[in-house]
Amino acid sequence: MTSKSSNKLLPFAIVTFIYFIVGFLTTVNEQLQAPLKFTFLADAGSLKNTFTTLISFFFFLGYLLNGTLGSKWVNAIGYKNTIVRGLMFMIAGLCIYLWAAFVGYKYPNLAFQVGDGIIAYGFLIFILGSYLMGTSAAIIQVVVNPYVASYELPGTQPVQRLNITTAVNSIGTTAAPFFVTVIMFSGISIENVEIHQLLWPLTALIIIVMIVTAITRKIDLPDIANTRFTLGETQLKSIWSFRHFALGVLAIFCYVGTEVAIGANINLYAFELMDSNHPISFFGKTDIIIGGMDLGIHALLSTLYWGGFLVGRFISSFFSSISARTQLTVASILAVILAIIAMITQNLWFLVAIGLLHSTMWSCIFSLATKNLNKYTSKASGVFISAVFGGAVLTIVQGALADAFGSWRWTWILTVICELVILYYALVGSRIREKDLLN
After folding, report:
1. Coil/strand/helix, residue 111
2. Where are the alpha helices (DSSP H) in 220-321?
3. Residue partners of 120: CB distance under 8 A and separation at least 6
């Protein structure tokens, strides 16, 4: 490899590694829900599940409220300085996690009553940290997505570079559950965890992110020309006037919504089927032994679903000649078919398989939605990231449908609707109107 090629690859590799950290810590936040339910919320009574979901809700709230903040910073101080600020938010969030664990350990009786439940103050501190972690993830993604899509890496196209970066991100999301289970809680059962077990792992994570932040400040991370407005420049058009972008925001809202809803709710559907004695098996087995631990089949479903993202993104990173529109069209059609078959047959493995199809959708939608936006790209990225809040909204909507229907079975019609919106975007909405072309 030539020196010039190496110089081109280094910034791309650094941004990709930071995105790995985002994926890793995003899933750590999600995986801590169950342990905290048995520590901070052990006496929360009938409100236990409600308060537990606040961890994810506040994380996604960071996306909703601060995605546009990231794009403002990109325009004002550039990509590199914005990503450093995002890492600083990450450090702050981890420090608040550590503070919450310390308060829970040293002052276990510091709590207040809500209804029939007792809520530890340490939990309130923790969800503040979750909000900051969501803010950090939003700000960093505002940088990563347009940077990777616009970065000129020889022999690649935008959707391919995004697939490579999101594949590395998926390695982080896949590794995080093992970190929480094996490192943080030493492989013991969830109901026996103690809050003090968080102290040293969180301290180590803070140190690691501090080192990454210091390195990022020192390295040369070149700006991307013609992708942002500098201070004093006038924006002549509203970002919403670009139809292919506006419809792309709707598509990403639906995509993230159904992506997260399947991952979060498939286990609940599995419990429902098992209670009704409906057969669910994996190669003829209903229990899987991993690392000496006996895992029910329901525990394997979401793991394989998210694992499909890693496999799919790795494979699609080699699709240098297949356009984003073609990839998105094929994936959404197949996802609709699988969701319908899953409802009719009550076979959860068809829902699991959708993870493989969802793997490339983020990259495809983002590259299509921001195509030819030029200096509007960074602003578009901030709005785009805010739409990730769909992950919180549609998960709750599906839960409400399950209560209304009395079953999870037909709630997957929500997935079908979302996939059809994505299909419409691939076929029609992503096409750029002549009046939206910029010189």
Report:
1. strand
2. 243-275, 297-316
3. 39, 40, 41, 104, 108, 110, 111
Judge if 1-232 and 235-439 fold alike in CATH terms: yes
Identify whether the C-beta of residue 111 lies closer than 8 Å to the C-beta of residue 123.
no
Say what the pLDDT of residue 294 is. 38
Q: Can you give the residue ranges of every domain in the chain?
A: 1-232, 235-439
3-class state of residue 296 by DSSP: strand
Residue bearing tokens 């030539």: 2
Find how far residue 410's CA is from the centre of its chain.
25
Q: What is the pTM of this model?
A: 0.79
User: What is the mean pLDDT, run by run of 10 residues, along the chain of 439 residues?
Assistant: 60 90 86 76 72 80 87 86 95 95 88 81 91 94 86 80 87 80 73 83 94 90 72 72 94 93 80 68 47 48 80 82 92 97 91 92 91 83 87 83 86 96 96 77
Token pair 């210091």 is found at: 214
pLDDT score, position 233? 62
Identity at 434, one-letter amino acid code: E
Cα within 13 Å of Cα(133), Cβ side: 30
Looking at CATH, the fold of the domain delimited by 1-232 is given as Growth Hormone; Chain: A; (1.20.1250)
Question: First CA to last CA across the chain, in angstroms?
Answer: 36
Distance CA 199, CA 66 (A): 28
Classify residue 220 by burial, with Cβ atoms within 10 Å: 0-12, 13-18, 19+: exposed
The C-alpha atoms of residue 264 and residue 259 are separated, in whole angstroms, by: 9
Which CATH number is correct for 235-439, 3.40.50.11540, 3.60.15.10, 1.10.10.10, 1.20.1250.20? 1.20.1250.20
Look up tokens 């691939």; give the residue: 426
How many CA atoms lie less than 13 Å away from 363 in the CB half-sphere?
A: 34
Are 345 and 409 contacting, i.e. CB atoms less than 8 angstroms apart? no
Residue 173: the pLDDT is 79
Q: Count the alpha carbons within 13 Å of 426 in the hemisphere toward its beta carbon.
A: 23
Residues 6 or more apart whose CB falls under 8 angstroms from that of 422 comprise: 251, 254, 255, 328, 332, 335, 361, 365
